[in-house]
Amino acid sequence: MTDKIITVMKKHRLLLVFLAAALVKQILVIHVPIYASPGTPCDDELMRDWAFSIAGMDWLGDFDVYTFLKEPGFAIFLGVCYRLHIPYIFAVTLCYSVACMIFCTALRNIFSFGKYVLVIYLFLLFHPVSYCSSVLQKVYRNGLGVVLTLCIFGGLLHMYFSLRGEKAWRLFFWSAFTGLSLGYMWITKGDTAWLLPFTGVICLVMLGILLVKCRNLRYLPRYLCLALPFSGVLLSIAGVSFLHTQRYGISSLEYYATVMDEISHIRQEGADEKIPLTRKQVKELYQISPTLASVQKELEKEMDEHNAYDTNPADGEVEAGWLGWTLVRAFYDAGMYEDSQTADAFFRNLHEDLDAAFADGRLERVEESAVQKYYLDTPTHRRELIGRTLETLNYMISYRRTHVSMSAREVPDSEECIWAFERVTGNTHAHLKAKHDYAIAGWIVFPDYDGQKMSVYIEDEKGNRYKKLRFRRSEDVYESLKGTGRDLKSARKCRFHTGWDIEDDTKDTVFYLGLYKEQADGAKEGERIARVQIGKDGFIGEGTLAFDGVLDTYNSQKDRKQAENAAILPVQRLNLIGSFYRATGPVMFWFGILAYVVLTLVFLWGLRRKTYEYVNPWLIVTGLSLSVLVLALGIAYVDLTQCPAIKTHYLSSGYPLIISAELISLCKCAELLSVHMQRVRELLVQYRMARSL
Question: What's the number of CA atoms in the CB half-sphere (13 Å) around residue 53?
Fold first, then answer.
């Protein structure tokens, strides 16, 4: 029995080492805090709110301005984690480790020894982009995007190497896996087109191999497998469209994209390239389009606000990167997003106004050629694009802004928002200094005492009072409860937001909301009627007391201090690992370039001698490098034409690809050198034996 276990362990020793290293990674991220971003209604907060709705089986919740503008893939992932009570950081890190295994096991086909694959795996596994503040800690789609990128490339490579294998089910499995990964990536991030060139090329190469080597009809299923990656994209899009239609009656706003394209392509003289629609043009459009004029007040207000986000706030204009958000926010504020049908009709009417103006010459449309569209029309633009692309690559290889953070910037009145992030992720937020030892916010009503004058106090187990709750107006709660058949007068004023401080000797107490009935003679409150425990997950009633309430915020400085102390060591360890990458990044990049040149020369020499040992390694490195280059070009284009985009979270998916290309080149050269050294040693042994004879 022992011999069998040892035999199995030897056979799968590489996988066992993979798993052991992944376990170490999971241990390292324990107590790493999240980095919530209050004030991001179209990004982090949107995904959080969608996750709550998905977990509650309500798709994306009520229709609003963002419903059809963002991809829901990350919200689905976050909602599933929340429903299953799996901490967000644990889940993303585990998925990343599995993705690294999938990618690296595919590379086993191009190396003679597993030690080279292990080196690549370890460099990928502990890469700082997998745990830095803007990727893992940020509750947004960047971390999941990195995971899916590795799954897509790993799946494609597994497809390639199982194409002509005896077991056709392997090809089907990896084709289906790649399709699911690519499809899920498509509904998670909008900027995924850069993945299609590599996917398309490798599928064409596989098709060519099948046409040359496998022309028999029994290989037809293998041909069909090549379509699965693209089918995954179509099925994912169709699935989201179906859920949209079921919840909102339509799958998209039919004329939204058309209107945005028309508005951003109106001819103007002497305008900045980054400003597709000037304030002067907007005023002219009010005269042309009655539909746009109906939202004039809201649009002017939003343009004033969004101008502050630009690279040049003093000009009063809104740049391309913010124009779309400016318009839809104005339309929303004007009531055009009351429901999907209202929004759809608004955009249809606006399109008809603009289309008529283009037809009769009141507006002139700017027609862009392909070279103009992609910033290649003039020598100046081409130089700027190349320069910005090189700047993007330099940003990646230097590993700037890839640190783990344990503290966050202060945002006023953000307690409720941050606590919502903590609830949906199951992780503690990075340390914030609060005004009070404890703080809570939410609403509560007591149906049995509705209409009676009551007082509610914060008190401890012994009955010591700390704060009397001051209730604020809450018509939203009243309307919500009324919709369930409960017309409670007290629900009109039941919201609260308060904080209190404690003495050191009460730090371990449990706090309650104590309910007291005011006496008729106006004297101070009498005896306590009932109390409700304040728990981290909400209110907990005692006895038969009936109440309705939601705790939106529960903030304990004691708990935060404990979380901060627990995070110090993991953050320091991860930043220490990251410092190695930051110190060696540029050097490794240039050595990787040199190794790629050597690999290319060996590859060409092999072709000349009709040996193809280095064909696959060279193709893989070239494909990975070109994919990173396409991503860098895309980011450079956005940075030049729309908004600042050379940032870690936008480039996150490219980091594992660029280091993989470097390491594959270096490891293949090391393997080549090792083989030649072994041959030299064998020749020396033969020479010495010949001399001895």
Answer: 17
